[in-house]
Specification:
This protein has about 475 residues and is α+β, with helices and mostly antiparallel strands. It is built from eleven helices and five strands. A five-stranded antiparallel beta sheet has the order 1-2-3-4-5, with no helix packed on it. Helix 3 packs across helix 9, helix 5 crosses helix 8 and helix 6 runs antiparallel to helix 8. The longest helix is centred in the C-terminal third of the chain and has 67 residues. The protein starts with a helix and ends with a helix.
Length: about 475
């Protein structure tokens, strides 16, 4: 009964900082990776609030998995640091519980969290990436909203050129308006001039509505009479005229999501396996085709001369060429050069295809391993954070935050370095993706053993004592 209460105590001490740190880290990553990175693509597009909410929601959800290891590390340091600082950890140990039994309920929770992270990465995250990528692509392709400045011809609307002399103080009335209509593709055949006017849009924002007052409209039209092409000019003086300009290019057009489904981030582990296997088969076929082509094309053409040389060793290649006439010699040289160029071109094209296939295999294998590595990262970083908190014996947002940020930055930098080595194909993908965890695993084992033995490796007074003792020995000597 008492053991269950202690387990509840440790879980309650872990869950609140985990939720808080996960929210804060996701928010910070969201600001850096989404808002700051794509700010220029979002400003001035006249996007609907619903589209922005969708984009930000997808981006927020997509960031969660990469922030879970940081949240686990920081929450474990804070929770076990609080338990140690308030002597609750010492009380549990005095009742006969080892550190391993105290950590057991949180460890079970971390295992469940790691499993849920894999399920999320494998089934939910590909769908989120698909929708966010397609929506972001459409937003980046969308034209900016209409922005007509004073005294400058605005040509952002297709087939129209608009100039406004000046705007009223509250920007609702325009003065000295010039409009050139090029929809007929006959030059400035339709021209409109107005003293004042207003600009609005239709309810569905599909058209730009210009309400012009006190102006003239000129239209020059062509007609044929007895095979002679002539033009006529019509003029309209108006008190008020409404002009509708279509804004189809300024609306957000959605692209078919099927076009993005082939990217590695949109696939689960089984689909990634399938793509990797099919790409490996394609690569092997390319290699076989190149070997076959080299043997049947280039080799067979040159083997005849080799056989001639073997049958009659006294006959040299130079003597054969010297015996040819000028035209035959030039033709032979041209044929040789063409054969060499063709062979070189085939080899270069095959090499480019090989590199492309290998890059595809590398990227898809990296995505496959990333979905699993992040789950084990939660476990390894927990065994780094929990013993650190027990050793440091500090809770709150002071020392735990500094220590956790240091370890997470080390893990993050190692991950990025090894991922780049994998992309450059200097290391196999499985080695590069798992190497940071291999480095942190002995650290976690070392810290857990030290914390279980109540080590004082972070008590700097001990080091000051030993350093002082060392200097005293030197003075005596």
């Amino acid at each position: 009964m008492h053991l269950k209460k202690l387990h509840k105590l440790t879980l309650k001490s872990f869950l609140p900082p985990f939720v808080a740190t996960l929210f804060i880290s996701v928010f910070l990553f969201f600001l850096v990776e989404i808002v700051i990175t794509y700010l220029d693509d979002l400003i001035g597009k006249g996007l609907k609030t619903t589209d922005l909410i969708k984009l930000f929601t997808y981006a927020w959800i997509a960031i969660i998995p990469q922030c879970i290891p940081l949240a686990v590390l920081l929450a474990s340091i804070m929770s076990f640091g609080n338990l140690a600082e308030n002597y609750e950890l010492a009380a549990m140990k005095s009742s006969g519980l080892s550190l391993y039994k105290i950590m057991a309920p949180v460890f079970v929770l971390i295992l469940v969290l790691a499993g849920l992270t894999f399920v999320f990465n494998n089934f939910i995250l590909p769908v989120v990436h698909l929708k966010s990528t397609s929506l972001l692509y459409d937003i980046r392709q969308k034209k900016p909203t209409v922005n007509i400045k004073e005294g400058i011809f605005y040509n952002g609307i297709e087939n129209f050129s608009i100039r406004v002399g000046r705007k009223s103080a509250n920007k609702d009335t325009l003065h000295d308006i010039f409009i050139y209509n090029h929809t007929a593709h006959l030059g400035n055949n339709i021209q409109m001039y107005s003293n004042t006017g207003k600009i609005t849009t239709t309810a569905d924002t599909s058209d730009l509505v210009l309400i012009l007052r006190d102006g003239n409209r000129y239209e020059e039209s062509a007609y044929s009479n007895n095979s002679d092409e002539r033009t006529s000019l019509s003029q309209l003086t108006y008190k008020q005229l409404q002009v509708n300009i279509p804004l189809e290019d300024f609306k957000l057009k959605r692209t078919n999501e099927e076009l993005f489904k082939g990217n590695e981030e949109m696939l689960n582990v089984w689909q990634l396996d399938s793509v990797v296997d099919s790409t490996k088969r394609i690569l092997q076929r390319r290699i076989n085709n190149l070997n076959t082509q080299a043997q049947t094309s280039f080799y067979t053409r040159t083997s005849a001369s080799i056989k001639t040389k073997q049958n009659n060793p006294l006959v040299s290649v130079h003597s054969v060429f010297d015996s040819l006439k000028v035209d035959d010699f030039n033709r032979a040289v041209d044929n040789s050069m063409n054969m060499a160029r063709t062979a070189q071109g085939n080899i270069d094209n095959s090499q480019m295809a090989f590199e492309n296939d290998k890059s595809v295999i590398t990227k898809f294998l990296m995505e496959w391993h990333k979905k699993i590595v992040i789950c084990f990262a939660c476990i390894v970083l927990f065994f780094v954070g929990a013993p650190l908190g027990a050793i440091i014996k500090k809770g709150g947002l002071g020392m735990p935050v500094i220590v956790s940020v240091f370890f997470f930055l080390a893990y993050y930098i190692l991950t990025e370095v090894f991922m780049q080595l994998a992309l450059d194909r200097k290391l196999p993908v499985y080695q590069a993706l798992w190497m940071p965890l291999v480095i942190f695993l002995p650290i976690s084992i070392f810290l857990t053993i030290k914390a279980a033995k109540d080590s004082v490796i972070f008590d700097f007074s001990i080091y000051y004592y030993w350093i002082g003792k060392l200097f005293k020995r030197k003075k005596r000597a």
